[in-house]
């Protein structure tokens, strides 16, 4: 009977693992403070816009349901 291809987990000591994590995090290009603020504002604005849109659709469908069912 064939065994499925199960990836093997390498035996890495925890200290070596965290050293590798730190070395990889040093390679990351982090955004500047202004970029982070601008992108956060954009995400919040889009979230609010989508919430208003979905809320509007919900209100519209509730009214349509009331009209169709006569309640």
Explain this structure to me?
The chain is mainly alpha-helical. It has a domain at 31-71. 70% of the residues lie in helices and 0% in strands. The protein has helices at residues 14-26, 33-69. The longest helix has 37 residues, at 33-69. 0% of the residues are buried. The mean pLDDT is 90.
Mean pLDDT: 90
Strand element count: 0
Structure annotation, total helices: 2
In the predicted model, the low-confidence regions spanning at least 5 consecutive residues are: none
What kind of oligomer do you see?
single chain
Order of secondary-structure elements: HH
Q: Tell me, briefly, the overall form.
A: elongated
Radius of gyration: 26 Å
Fraction of residues in β-strands: under 5%
What is the element layout, followed by pairings?
Elements: H1 14-26, H2 33-69
Quick recap:
With about 70 residues, the chain is mainly alpha-helical.
Key terms for this structure?
71 residues; 2 helices; mainly alpha; 70% helix
